[in-house]
Amino acid sequence: MNPKIAPSILAADFACLGDEVEAVLAGGADLIHFDVMDNHFVPNLTVGPTVLAALRKRFPDVPFDVHLMVDPVERLVDEFIEVGASMISIHPEACRDLGDVLKRIKNTGVKAGVVLNPETSEAVLETCWNDLDHVLIMSVKPGFGGQSFMPEVLPKLSRVCDAIKQDGRDIHIEIDGGISSSTIGVAAKAGAEIFVAGSAIFNTDDYANAITELREHAA
Ligand code: DX5
Ligand code: ZN
Is 36 exposed, middle or buried (0-12, 13-18, 19+ CB in 10 A)? Predict the structure, then answer.
């Protein structure tokens, strides 16, 4: 397993966001996790497509992993594709037609994923396996950084991992929320390959060291 570390900009210093992204990339980040919140689907408000467009201009080759916590999701999906998202993850609760939105993402060459909240069953994946590039398992309630990891989502993560293996699909499992050196190991053991981490990276003064430590604990 080659763990991928995805720093979440939610915990970055927004006064110098581009420099923060540059610093985590220099520190070994594999992708940049971009949390979009609308003060409706979740009780918090973050950034939109214009901010991603600016980052995309400064970092033309970096994979940007867009996590859409917005309702409705359809129009913003198109806008984020337009400004250069590399991966887009959507919550089934915010889609009129989940399969349709996933297909729209995939048809443009962007990687498509479904997010499972802690209380959301993996049964929602049943109708859309063929349209998925990744599954994002939330290990906190979405909306805020700095929350504690919920180990109770791990059995679900393992079941999703088993289903993917059983069918020989090329689908990756990402985990988001409360990931730190002390929680990343169990998530990796359960089958996660992409690890989102906000506070565990940006709340330290040595991003490279934090990323290396996470990678070592995942391996
Ligand atoms: C929470 C977001 C996460 C958040 C993770 O709704 O989706 O990406 O930034 O932050 P930490 O790593 O601090 O839990
Ligand atoms: Zn996220």
Answer: buried
Taking alpha carbons only, the member of 21, 28, 16 closest to residue 208 is 28
Selecting among 30, 35, 38, 133, the annotated active-site residue is 35
Structure pTM?
Answer: 0.98
The answer to whether the CB of 191 is under 6 A from ligand 1 is no
Please tell me the number of Cα atoms within 13 Å of 59 on its side-chain side. Answer: 20
Scan for tokens 């209380």, then name that residue: 119
> pLDDT tens-digit profile of 36-55?
999 999 999 999 999 999 99
Would you kindly state where each structural domain of the chain is located, as residue ranges? 4-218
Per-residue pLDDT of 9-24, as tens digits, reads 999 999 999 999 999 9
Distance (Å, whole) CA 1 – CA 25 = 21
Rounded Cα distance between 189 and 196, Å, is 16
How many residues are recorded in the chain?
A: 219
Is the CB of residue 177 below 6 angstroms from any atom belonging to ligand 1? yes
Q: Assign a CATH topology to domain 4-218.
A: TIM Barrel (3.20.20)
